[in-house]
Design a protein that fits this description.
With about 170 residues, the protein is of the alpha+beta class. The chain has one domain: Alpha-Beta Complex (Ribosomal Protein L22, Chain A), CATH 3.90.470.10. Helices cover about 30% and strands about 30% of the residues. It is elongated. The two termini are about 35 Å apart.
């Protein structure tokens, strides 16, 4: 998303219908809000919660959007907004004794991660200072936001403790 009037640019990733309660996801999201991209990845890899893996994938996706679409460096990215909303509740019936049934409610949540490049902050200050003295259009100013497609595939290796029989509790 690029708002040309204020020269503020943001990228985001949105995960919908993730099968966990919003309360459990908020516990992790509150730890990463306002942190840099690299610090966030370290925190998410080391926290012992099941919510870390889908949030890790969303943060990685938002950074990939920033580097591919906007041409930003991943080292300069900061999470400016991270929120969790409740999704639909999937309802199931479990058979019980004597022909009865028991209702099971499986909650879902929607997670959104918004990132911003902090290296453009210095450039934005320069443009606003320059526009005070001369009457130029900020739409005509271009900086290198063209996609850099030299690196087509990036590989990421990490240890997934949940599917490989980790030692921590999944709750």
């Amino acid at each position: 998303m690029l708002n040309k009037r204020t020269t503020e640019a943001q990228v985001y990733a949105l995960g919908q219908h993730i099968s966990m309660s919003a309360h459990k996801a908020r516990r992790v999201i509150d730890q990463i809000r306002g942190r840099s991209y690299e610090e966030t990845l370290m925190i998410l890899e080391l926290m012992p919660y099941r919510a870390c893996y889908p949030i890790f994938k969303l943060v990685y996706s938002a950074a990939a959007n920033a580097s591919f679409v906007m041409g930003w460096n991943e080292a300069n990215l900061v999470i400016i907004k991270a929120e969790v909303n409740e999704g639909t509740i999937v309802k199931r019936l479990k058979p019980r004794a004597r022909g009865r049934s028991f209702a099971i409610q499986k909650p879902t949540c929607h997670i959104s991660i918004v990132m911003k490049d902090i290296s453009l902050k210095k450039y934005n200050k320069y443009v606003s200072k320059y526009n005070q003295y001369q009457d130029i259009d900020t739409d005509s100013i271009t900086w290198s936001q063209k996609p850099k497609c030299k690196k087509k595939h990036t590989t990421m290796s990490y240890y997934d403790m949940y599917s490989n029989g980790g030692t921590w509790d999944k709750k």
